[in-house]
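Postdoc handover notes: sequence design on the structure in folder B. Input tokens:
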């Protein structure tokens, strides 16, 4: 039996941390599709497991985007306006 893309993503996230770009490249789909999948996975992960997000961090000033509710990558730092950001990473624990 073949797994769906979302089931495969859930398996990958249980095994390690992944960025949006890495997941999109792995499945050859757009980041928007992966974001939709992650939103669905958040609601469907069996408890007590949950989707954890390591927030993006500004490489210039070190600002961490904590408390962010969106899955998309921010474009720049709100503090120093730097556009070089370490991407957010996802995993299931």
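Designed sequence:
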């Amino acid at each position: 039996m073949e797994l769906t893309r979302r089931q495969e993503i859930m398996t990958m996230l249980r095994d390690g941390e992944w960025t949006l770009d890495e997941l999109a490249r792995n499945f050859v789909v757009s980041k928007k599709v992966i974001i939709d999948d992650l939103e669905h996975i958040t609601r469907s992960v069996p408890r007590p497991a949950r989707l954890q997000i390591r927030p993006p961090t500004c490489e210039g000033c070190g600002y961490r985007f904590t408390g962010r509710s969106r899955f998309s990558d921010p474009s720049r730092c709100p503090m120093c306006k730097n556009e070089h950001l370490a991407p957010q990473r996802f995993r299931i624990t």
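Context for whoever picks this up: The mean pLDDT is 95. Don't rerun without checking with the PI first.
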